[in-house]
Specification:
alpha+beta; two-stranded antiparallel sheet; 28% helix; globular
Length: 130
Amino acid sequence: METASLNKGGRLDIRVMARRSRIPDFDLPPQPVAADVPCPLCGRPLGTVNIDRHHLIPKSLKGREQFPIHKICHRKIHATFSERELLHAYHTWEALREDDDIRAFIDWVAKKPPGFYARTFTANKKKGGR
């Protein structure tokens, strides 16, 4: 919708008012995921329960692309890194897997079934114990 008027200087002022023509990608309901699709972090099959979606670039920092991931893997990522760290250093699956804490987690969770979930605690280094 366009509006036109004269501004204080007598010049024509045209403003285009934006309309929401569609729902942004990150607000769409999650799409179903096949149970045998591997988790991009740990490599285990996703299964059908305890599945989250992860933005490699945090949503709060304009990330849009989402990936299905185990809930426990997702929680581990966010318990270990701040959103700024995810944006600057850990915005790829390879970079995440190279971190020592994540590597130890992957080795541990590899022995668990796809639907496994346990509470994840915030890492001391994220709390400020660096």
